[in-house]
Structure formats: C-alpha cells, structure tokens
# Entry
Amino acid sequence: MFRPILALLSLLLASEVGAQTVVVQPYVQPGDGSTLGESDVKVIAWVTDQTPGEFIVEFRTGDGLWRQAQPERVKLDFAAPVKQRPPADVPTTLDELRRWFDSGSAPATPVEPEQHYYKYAATLTDLPFDSTISYRVKLGGSLVREGSFRTRASRQQTIRFVAVGDLAQGTEQQNRVAFQMWKAQPDFLVALGDIVYSSGRVSEYARYFWKTYNNVAVPSPKTGAPLMQTMPIYPVLGNHDVDARIDEKPDALGVFYFFHGPLNGPGLGSWNVPLGKNGEAAAAFRKNVGTSYPGLGVYSFDSGAAHFLVLDSNAPGSSMSARLLAWIQKDLSSTTQPWKFVCFHAPSFHTSPHHYEQQKMRLLEPIFAANGVDVVFSGHVHNYQRTKPLRFTPMPPVRDKRGRVNGNFELDATFDGVTDTTPEGVIHIVSGGGGAALYNSKDFAATVAQLERENVGNWVPFTAKFIADRHSFSLVELSPERFTLRQISLDGDEVDRFTITKPAR
# Structure
C-alpha cells in the first residue's frame, strides 16, 4: 500500500546527494544484431532523474584504444494513472512529498505519483565477434559504472545461454535464481515473458526488477546479482508484460522503454501489441520507445551455431495472418545455422491445469517441424516441464470452443537425452520458474488423470520431465554438434539434464 510513497522517498533522499541521480545503473542490451555478418553491435542504456548530465560512454576490445559512443537522451514523463481519485492530502510529486514529510502529516490513501526520467542509450558499433568488450560510463570526471560483455559468438564457437521466464514479482526466490544465473556466467539470457509483474509498467520495473538484476552492489542469494552489467537480455513478450494499456496507465508497456533488440521482424501488423484508442498517447509512446515498438514483438538472431526466433504469443487470433506465417517460414527456412530454437511465452504443450486451454501456438508446429526446429522454449506456466520429442499436426476444427487445438501426435518414446541423443521431433521446454509464485502440482498422477479425462485426445502422455516444487532456470551449452540443457534450481542443484547431438556439418 505504501510502496509508491516509499519509492518517492527513495528518489527524494537520492536527489539530496547530488545534482544527478542515476535511477537505473548502466546495463548491456543486444542491440540490432541479427545475422552473423561482419561485426556485432550492443547498446549501453541507463535511466536518471531529469537533471541534465553530459555523459560519455567509452569502450574497447582487449588492450585496444578506448573509443567513444555518444548517448541519445529521451525525456520520459508519466502522469499518475488516470483512474486514481486521490484525496487532497495525498502527495503525488516529489515537492508535495517533501512538504508532507516536513509537516509530519500522513495521507489517508497513498496513491501512485507521477514519474519523470531521462532515458539514455549509446550504441556501440563495429564490435568484433568472439570478443570481450570493456566499457565505462562517465558523468563529467566521475565514473558511473564500468563492466565488460561478450559479443556474439561466430558459428564454430561454443556458447552458454540461459532461458527462463516469469521473473520479477518481488519475491525472495527471484533473487536466489538471479544469483545462480550470475554464478553460471552465461553469454546472454532469453527472458521468456512476464519479465515483471503484474502488468509490465515502468513503476513495476522500479519496484521489482532493477534491484534484483541490475542495481546490485554485492551479488548474493538475498540481493540477486548485477546480471545486466555484463549480460544482454533478449526479451520475449508475456501477457503480464503487456497487460496494462497506456490509455489508463501512462507508464504501461515498460518492456519497450528498457530493452533494445534486433529489428529484423515483419513490422507493424495485427500481431503487434495494441496501443489503445487514445491516438495522442499512442503517438507519444511510439516517439519515446523508438524502434523497440514493434521491433521487440517478433524478431530473430544468430549466436554461435544457433538461430533464435522470438514470437509474441499474446496477440489476437489474427496473429496467424498469412503475412506473419510467411515471415516465420522465410526466417526459419533461410537460416543456415545448424540449430534452430523458437521462443515464445505461452507453451503449446504442457501438463498443468493452469493456462491449459491456451493452445494457439500449436498451429505453428507444422512450420517448426518442416524447417528443422530443435527446441521450443516457453514460460507462462510457473514450473519446469520437458516434453518427449514430438510432431503435431492440427486437425479441423482449427480451434474448438474452449480454445484448444486438437490434432495428431507422433511421440519419440526412445529418446532419453543420455543414451539416445538424436530426437525424432521437436522438444518443448517450459521454464517458468524464474521467481513468480509456482504452479505446484503436488500430485502429478492426479493432474494427468484430470487432463486426460477433461481433454480426450487433446492431452497425450508427452511429458518426459516435470519439476514443480522449486524455482529453476534453463542453462544451455551449445556447440555446432552438441546441445546440453541443465535445469538449475534456486539452490544451484541440477534437477534435469539432457543432450542432443548432431553430426558435424
């Protein structure tokens, strides 16, 4: 109830220290790098209060000379939510909060304040692949933050990445998971949606996100870790990331303000997050987020021997439009990478009552199978699940009255990822245990019986592994010939492992 007031107090106290307050410490983003062309690109971003500052970003490769990148600055002003009706004595700005503390009075009903920031972003270009890049951000003569990151790996190199969703809900568990991810030292993270709860607003990032994954001085299970100081995050849009609408919550759709990803998607279409009926608010939003909207909805990128395709499972039924399907087909068929991974939020196949009937993405299975997709990663269901390798062919009606997609299954029952490492079909991973409250099926057998009884022919025994009693994340080691996934718990324990192998190409 008092969190908005405490957030204001924190900003007020910070502003007393100096003229410039860095609200979000500098962090690394992937930038508009998709194929493995001549060089890589990254973005260094950060957020401050609205005291102007002359920042400088410097970067270098190895022992090379320091180069400079000029940051761009965007002014962000978010009014208080339009449906609030604050009483006269409730502070909604920093000045009112200051007077409130000076007077010793207390408001009857705390409400959310306005928010005012500067967002900075500097693009680092012409970065060699397979390299460690050092960077530092300076304000005047003072060092704000320094760090290093790895550029994307060329095709013959081994990479290590993390995939996990359903992250920042302000829980103790999200800090423990973040600490374990930091210990694993991956090259990058694919955030499988629902990055922040409960509706993806800028204020919720301030409340739940930055203090776990970025603004962390000393990594620990209690505090989280500064993952973003050294590790790019590729965002996948989850339902909670786009729940709020800018018509009512001016700071909605925070993901588009803070993340900078590849821009090779199909552009504007019916598959994009709707921006509401307020044309003025929509125009201001698009101006402030730039190319991130609609860029972050659908895109792809290469790293090491893998091709990653990111899709938005939240869009309405028209997201299966002919134009989008043609783009997906072209993207998957044109890549020459030996491994192909698809990432979206709501899983097509899982064994949980939660969200079971949200099966729209099953319609894409024939495209995935025809184009050699190896693994599909999802979140949304707050646990860990792994399917047997499967092929699925949708059958009419395309979707029934409950939203389910029925069809024919082919399951590879011999693949175990240990002795048999050559699957016949696509493996689907649900890795939704990043920090939000678990969907804990205490009796797996009873859940299976319920799903079989209520979904005859729609659910089949495709689940090979099910871990619902602890938070965890997926850690993948990938070379051109070998994929190994280890599921790591918030205590650092390995709760699943399997391997896929391919002949050298």
Notes: Residues 1-18 have pLDDT under 50 and may be disordered. The radius of gyration is 23 Å. DSSP finds ten helices and 23 strands in the chain. The first helix runs from residue 3 to 15.
